[in-house]
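Issue 218. Parser rejects a valid record. Input:
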Amino acid sequence: MQREEKKRGNMTYTKTCKWFDVCPLNKFYEQGKLDKKWIEDYCLNHYLKCARYQMEDEGIYHPDNMMPDGSIDKRLG
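Output the parser choked on:
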C-alpha cells in the first residue's frame, strides 16, 4: 500500500490530524514560536500519539500551551 504524500511549505507529510486547522500549535508554529519538529512528528504524521488529539477526541479540556507529549510550555501561554 502506497502512502500519499503532501507538502505544506517546506514540510512533507503523509497523514494530517483532523484538528490541525484549528489547533493552537499550528498557530504557534506559524508565529515562529514552535519548532517544526512538533508539527512534523505529531500533527502531520503520528497524530494518534498526540496527547492533545487524544484529549480532544474524548472531549477533555486541555490548555492551548499543552504540547503533543502532554507537557505544558509556559512560553506559549
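Fixed in the parser; the record now loads. The longest helix spans residues 36-43.
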